[in-house]
Amino acid sequence: MFITLEGIEGSGKTTQMRQLSASLENRGHSCVLTREPGGTVLGERIRAILLDPASNELVPTAELLLYMADRAQHINSLIKPCLADGKIVLCDRYFDATVVYQGSARGLDTGLICDLHRIIFDDLKPDITFLLDLAPQIGLARAWKQLDIGTRSGSESRFEEETISFHEKVRAGYLELARSEPKRFRVVDGSKNEKQVQADIRDALAEYF
Ligand code: TMP
Question: Residue 156's closest CA among 73, 67, 54, 69?
Fold first, then answer.
């Protein structure tokens, strides 16, 4: 089974992923926790380029292709083998992030992004995607707090430095995707406190099972 978590910066995905993985493991499921960009040794090197504010000269198509390169490595060396082994793969961001960040927000053709996904990755889609939805003002305030107190490194702040209007496009893009694929997406209110969000995810997953 393939589960992804998506949302704007500061939506709490990473914390929720860890908790979801722990609760599934407690119930006897074998889980693999991974992320994009990253998740493989090479992917982490690509991540460093993509998230570094010093990479600001990246043009949108180069950015898109770096995310795709990361995903090619990730799918082939980790996601597919783990799924074939019967494990639950929990991935912090995946293809939907490319559609909304590089498509809806950067303005690249979302049709082209979907075509590339179909051609290169055989349209590998998650079974279920949790979208942690919240206003960018709240998410960005949380994200900047993490940067200020050092729980997230300043060398990973390129997207936090984008404008509110960029993050509003990301949020709108995600909600649009969720409306277009209601079977796969579960939209969870990410502005609630950690425990409530955790309970909402657990309930939605129990319903799915
Ligand atoms: P995160 O790991 O803290 O969520 O940071 C990853 C950043 O990369 C985040 O700002 C969203 C962005 N991103 C894209 O722009 N396109 C993608 O395809 C993915 C996976 C992430």
Answer: 54
Domain span at 130:
2-208
- Per-chain mean pLDDT for the chain: 97
Q: Which of 101, 108, 129, 153 to mutate to test ligand 1, by most ligand atoms within 8 A of the CB atom?
A: 101
Identify the pLDDT of residue 170: 98
Structural domains counted in the chain: 1
Strands 128-133 and 185-189: parallel
Ligand 1 center to residue 86 CA distance, Å? Answer: 27
**C-beta 67 within 6 A of ligand 1:** yes
Check whether 209 has a pLDDT greater than 90. Answer: no
pLDDT per position as a tens digit, 63-94: 999 999 999 999 999 999 999 999 999 999 99
Q: What is the CATH number of the domain that holds 114?
A: 3.40.50.300
Tell how far the Cα of 93 is from the centroid of ligand 1, in angstroms. 7
Of the pLDDT bands very low, low, confident and very high (cuts 50, 70, 90), residue 20 is very high
Give the residue-averaged pLDDT of 105-124: 97
Tokens at residue 53, please?
């504010």
Q: State the DSSP code for 92.
A: E
Task: Give the separation between CA 159 and CA 178, rounded to whole angstroms.
Answer: 22
Ligand 1: atom nearest CA of 35 is: 2
C-beta 47 within 6 A of ligand 1 = no
